[in-house]
Design brief:
The structure holds two protein chains of two kinds. Chain A is built from three helices and five strands, in the order E-E-E-E-H-H-E-H. By secondary structure, chain A is α+β, with helices and mostly antiparallel strands. The chains are: A alpha+beta, B alpha/beta.
């Protein structure tokens, strides 16, 4: 029988205490993240970097280590001299991982 | 280099035009054709603005907005969703070269929020700055502020709450699945305040105090937009702020 792979969608969010809300939506196909959407009431300068951050998370495998993902993210932030306000790269990776896990659990 | 600040007194525009003027002047300041500018304005019709990273559909009840004749627009600045009630607030923008302000984000918020706090003080209201971007009076938020930097220009805009229409605010902002209850309204009233809770003033007096505070120690003139700025702002309304592509981009 030919396996049918369905795109699975995941979501997670975190409100940093005294900080901002970060929400991550992902689409996972065959254990690889195909789409990432980050939303929330945080600040990021320059604003366009968010799209590059999302882009940098596309292609991440669902079992990839947090440290490796964090490295990817930090590279983009450093290259673009981006400033995060009200959230951190570590926090973002945590929410991202949670979003990915959530669609593994949903199983469909 | 412009020697003088331009101050544009209290105007009324719709939300699209308000955001387009901010962008136009930022562009202009970057090209050195617009002077450093301080402006005060209201929103008519009342409108919701959302932060540039927010999901419109997560934050705003679009159907309800249409029903009530309330506009919605995505800002170029980060931060949260704000309901701008025509009778309930005054908004300001400060647009000037980044070099006018401290480099640090919080430090620069502190400088401009300091002008707002000074304005409140002139009205007899004691406020203080709470990082990242809030101004607090008696433990409650009275002003939210947001900043962006682009092309060497800093834009900060923010609101000063004058009155509160919580029913409308809850109707148009998505605040979770709970029904709008007295409890929710009470919880917001515990966190947010408005000028009228502290002092009996009208919008005109508030604007006067804010202008006085914002211009303190500055060389400035009261002026308005150039024809070219207005042309560009209208262009940006149709190219960006009124488009689905922009407003629904997240």
């Amino acid at each position: 029988m030919v396996g049918v792979f369905l795109v699975r969608r995941g979501f997670a969010s975190e409100k940093v205490k005294g900080g901002k809300l970060v929400q991550v939506r992902v689409e996972v196909d065959e254990d690889v993240v195909k789409n990432v959407r980050i939303t929330g009431d945080f600040f990021l300068h320059p604003e366009e970097v968010l799209e590059e951050i999302e882009e940098s998370l596309v292609g991440v495998g669902v079992f990839e280590q947090e440290e490796t993902i964090l490295e990817r993210l930090k590279r983009v932030i450093k290259e673009r001299e981006a400033i995060l306000v009200g959230f951190s790269a570590e926090g973002l990776v945590r929410v991202f991982k949670e979003a990915v896990s959530s669609c593994l659990q949903s199983g469909e | 280099m412009f020697a003088k600040w331009r101050v544009v007194g209290l105007e009324v525009h719709d939300g699209f035009m308000n955001m387009a003027i901010d962008e136009t002047v930022s562009e202009g300041a970057s090209k050195r054709v617009s002077p450093p500018t301080i402006r005060f304005y209201r929103w008519k019709p009342s409108a919701v603005s959302i932060g540039c990273f927010q999901s419109l559909l997560d934050e705003v009840d679009v159907k309800k907005c249409k029903e009530l004749g309330i506009d919605y627009v995505r800002r170029r600045t980060g931060g949260g969703a704000v309901y701008h009630d025509y009778n309930g607030e005054i908004t300001y923008s400060v647009i000037a070269p980044e070099s006018f302000f401290p480099k640090g984000i919080t430090e620069s918020y502190k400088v401009i929020c300091g002008w707002v706090i000074e304005g409140l003080k002139l009205l007899g209201v004691e406020g203080y700055f709470q990082p990242v971007n809030d101004i607090i009076v008696e433990g409650k938020k009275i002003s939210g502020n947001a900043q962006t930097r682009r092309g060497g220009v800093l834009l900060q805009h923010g609101t000063i709450l004058y009155d509160l229409d919580l029913k409308t605010m809850f109707a148009v902002l998505r605040v979770g699945d709970e029904k709008i209850s007295d409890k929710m309204i009470k919880s917001v009233e515990e966190r947010v305040t408005r000028l009228l809770n502290h002092v009996n003033v009208n919008i005109k007096d508030v604007t006067k105090a804010l202008i006085k505070a914002f211009t303190k120690g500055k060389n400035y003139e009261m002026k308005t937009w150039t024809k070219e700025e207005l042309r560009r702002a209208k262009e940006l309304v149709s190219l960006r702020y009124k488009t689905k592509e922009w407003n629904f981009s997240r």
